[in-house]
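Example record

One chain of 779 residues, shown exactly as stored in the release files.
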Amino acid sequence: MQPSILWLASALLLFPATRIDADDFSTIEPMIRQHCVRCHNADEQEGDVRLDQLSSVDAELLTKVYEQIASGLMPPEDEPQPSAAQRSVLAKQVLELAKQSPSENVGGLRRLNKREYQNTVRDLLGLNDGNFDPSSYIYDDNVNEGFDTNASSLVMSDESLFEYMEAALWQALFTMDAKQPEPRVFEVPMRQLTGASRRYENQGKDFYTFRIGGNSKIVDGKATRNCQVPGRYRITVTASTVDEDRYPVKFVPKNEPPKLAIGVVSARRTGVNELGKTIETFPLIYDKEQTFTVETWIDRDFYPYLRMANGTSKPIVQIRAALRRSKFKKSDFAGPFRGPGIRVTQYKIEGPFYEQWPTESMKTTLLSDKMPDLTSATAREYLLGRFAIRAFRRRVTREEIGLWFDYLNQQYKQSRDWNDAVVKTMTAMMASTDFLYLFEEQGKLSDFPLASRLSYFFWSTMPDQELFSVANSGKLTEPATLRAQVLRLMQDPRADRFCESFADQWLALDELGTMPPDNKTREFRIYGESMEQAMREETRLFFRYVYEQNRSVADFIDSDYSFINNKLAELYGLPKQSDGKFTLTQLPASSKRGGLLTQGSVLTLTSNGVETSPVVRGVWVLDHFLGTPPPPPPEEVPAIVPDLIGATTVRQMLEKHRNDKACMQCHKRIDPLGFALEAYDPIGRYRTNYTKRQKVSTDGTFGGQAFRDIDGLKKILAADLRPFARNLIIRIAEYAKGRELVAADYPIVESIVQQTQRNNFQLKEIVYRIATSELMTQR
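Predicted structure tokens for this chain:
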């Protein structure tokens, strides 16, 4: 049984049956019988698919058959292939049949994912300058495959999620007092400072010294340290470094004095805020006091901290190591630890300060330059009504807002404070399904759902005021208005969110760093966190450039340029940049780079940090890059165990593996793609040998054409760009729609393929065509 057909059969469960008249098969029946029936008949139904009785076949099954043929999966390479004319006839007929397939079965309800939630809360409340991250209080999205916009993956599985959100939003929503808070000055007594364990701190009335780095934070030990009024605060610290040469060996930091970091952290210490946010770092001087001042916005229930930015989290480990490796005596290290430390003699906090009142955040939330008089019922009604429209991203009925007024009055009865009641009501609105979910009706979308779909596609956030206004006018669904708004959204800097999010998920960049090599070894010393960041940034910049410059998607297969900084230049064997920063770089013909497949990010995330696997890399290319994923291997087939001695080559092991009939068909597709990338080691360096005895073999066959190396494979892929471009169109459309495409969507896909093929599939045009097509305007 061929695994690819098993996948086809399982996919059919997603679609309802739509029977077709026998006459509809008259033009394609000869090809089906010639190329499909031999393996899919009454006696041999591979994948439980039978095609010898076409009268029993439905439109969805036939569409999947076409997908297999159009993607080159079927017939297998060693079987006779249909002619171009036959494929064309099949495509035309299938698309006609697909129009008969209903799409009403697709859902119209999708939860905001974590990054959309974060952006939406920030934009709704105008929190862009603060430290508060609303998404840190909710769970990560559990998306096993596809995109994090897929409605079927975004389930509300934990009832406590509402509690997390309500608690988080209560921290974000500020006081609505009409009077601006007065700034205060607080000198923190040195004896109140704490944060390091006792063995690494000592203090007196006028000083506090700490000798530990890592994640240790030095803070005011009193609960009053928590900021209760959000605003800008000024933090002043006077400090010096001490005890450079206390011991006969150097301790971390060895080659420079300790550095002082000043940051802000949440009092809750949960989620991504647990480690805090460093505002600024200052180099210190041994035995010389200096005074440093930073100004930063601090949200409610956050507080500032001090940290040794370049210190170690376990100084005692250095002492033990020094004793093991040298002739020092224990007496040399007797007494409390007195390694290099930071001595603080002043810690002052002033604020809050405001450039204006109400603040920009308050103006955004209130949609007004003035503070409302919340003792007025008219003012409360106006405020909550306008807030509900923005929070729910649509018009709100009188019945709906009436329920929220009832809730408001209940809150007031408990607190007897209209400010407090309004804030709690807004909090409840933002914990409701109307805020957390996107609602889309079946069929053609009306203006407000379309506005949300567009804004979350390009910006991953709620519509802005102009898009709201156009939706409210009822003109967004008009073709000319839609085209104008799509162009505006695409040209906005926030469209970078689409580029980054789509590229990360399409190429699985989130997997980069999950299995890093040991950079303590000589072989991988070059690798580290900065290299990992550089790899990811190269790919993001590359995708954004192709998009912004409206270049052909052929550049994703091969290009003569990329974005390189000095870390990557060293890895790729290229000249370093003069300033060391990322620069659009022309690649020499001999570089063995160009396109996505040879970038360090892709080559590293498809390795395990120790060795490479043609199977892993081949599967990645088929799945993520080409959109034709192979099915999972049969359970009864054992995994391939690498020959660490080197007596057997990787190619020899895989050839033996392919002799297993259950593995043969899939590995004919997987292995050649993986072998083409074997010229790159686990972190993406080019190589010609595994060891002194084993050379790297990169030749193979793809699509019936032979190639010698990755350059040859790129030429084969680029020679027929249509399948690659078509898959990319499908992936972008699925990201935008929040669901997998169904049979009735494919005629629109084919129309976009034909339109964009005229300009060699330029990426920005592809995105524009999708956003202005029925793929976007229909559920």
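Notes: Residues 405 and 490 are 38 Å apart (CA to CA).
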